[in-house]
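#random but structural
TW: two for the price of one
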Amino acid sequence: MIKGRKLLWTMSSILLLSGCTPTEAVTEEIKASSSIESSVEVASVPTDTEESKEIEEVYSDSVVPSDASESAEPQSSVSFDGYTLIEVYGGDLSGYRTANVVVDIGFGDREYWAYTNEYGQLVRVVAAEIILQDNATEPVNSEGRYYDDEAKVPGTENANLDEGHVIADSLGGVANAYNITPQDSVLNRHGDQAYMERNIVQAGGATNFEAIITYPDTTTQVPSYYKYTYTINGYQVVDEFQNVNPDEYNAAQGLTGEASSTPDSSGIATFAAPTETAGGDVSAVDTNGNGQVTIQEAKNAGYAMPIYSNHWLYPYMDDRDGDGQVGE
């Protein structure tokens, strides 16, 4: 099992919209029968191709090689034992959840299953296969969404919290409360959540997807922690992160090197991110002293991906496709 990273990632250069769609009906046939797990064991599977080597570097903190024949194929992990199967319109904005139910939150014919606990908290989402949005054949608006708005889950009224999709529009998820949690807006738009969504899109989909969502207590609908497990291109990946602003977290932990915090007029500390074009001591980032900086070394030093050509670290990194950015 790979432990959660200490540094939270941000991606200021991308904005993945999370969106939803009307779920037209819950499929009558249920093909799976395995029991619901409260945790996920991690195993991964590299193949011996150039593409997989690039994937390995990007996910070097969360991928473990294993037997490709087992993890590459979708493995059903759905069980309705102890849960009531209900149907909810994909665009329902009420924000209310029924306790101890399972709901299909996949748009169209997709089968993405969401589970609530006895307190009505969304605690688990599973999908044997993530099928990407197809804006050529599906009713997608100009913003890449199936619906124009998302469910008003309690907590989303907070200006710092987005109506965050567990499975984004781009990945075929709907917009009702069984796919929405109040999520830090930076995390949702530029952080680990966006990073995870973007890489599944770039991989053309994923299999064996599972999200485990935890809460600080039984009274809130605002999660404290997310854990995603999924397989792409023969690799099983685990992404774990807190529901916090990653920029502020990194700065508070002293992980950004040049960041500083100063209280504003309200007494709340604000954080200034390091200037990316400013020079620095490469030896502090190049931990193995080989004169080259890997993506993981840069992340460990607190630098968000991607690193662009105007960044002082860029000359020390390997821009394999020559597009002026590393770690995109």
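TW: number two ↓
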Amino acid sequence: MSLGKRNALPRRPRRDEAERPFWISFSDLMTALMVLFLVAMTVALLAITDEISATEDQKAAREDDIAKLMASLQIATADFPGITVRGRVVDFGDRARFDSNSHKLSEAQARLLRTFVPKVLAAARDPLGEKWLKRIVVEGFADARGSYLHNLNLSLQRSERVLCVLMAGPPAPDALNDTDRQQVRDLFLVSGASFNALKESAEESRRIELRLEFLELGETRGPSRQQALDGDSRCPLDL
């Protein structure tokens, strides 16, 4: 082969020149993927932020509804001096005070309960009550005298006494009607606080309160009992 022909052979491309287009395309691909990742993250963060904002709005609306419901109960106490609403608690104060080491209420106190509690039941039947009210807890309290277990039992008996008063049918003075008594049965629970929440004096500590509990967001109320009243309104505390 002549020297001229040998010099005419094509020059082989350098390795870096052959690979350079591939690396440029790969770099562009990585940049595009990074941009897509940032866009996806931005969309996800916006969705989470919107969800949190919506939940906070729902919580605020729930608190506003509950505040309105409690305000309506506060208005209802205007005709019952001595009964007050504190937050989500109805305090009967001196109007339902117990004697020392006793779970009994006077006839006047019993009539007061049977007159006032229908106001609470009316609030429970209000659209806001239907939407949020979960249950009503009757809390009995005792003073610091006596043992802890004795006072715990006594406070429970005081709560039970309130239910006995409310479930009493005719001929009890101002007896609740059947609809109200069924609602009491469905909504009310008893609780005893012994002397864990003392007032300034022993007399003030021997009291009862109604604590209203409300559904959380997404929580549903359990099914109500459909059974008719059994007709036996005798209080077990008196048997």
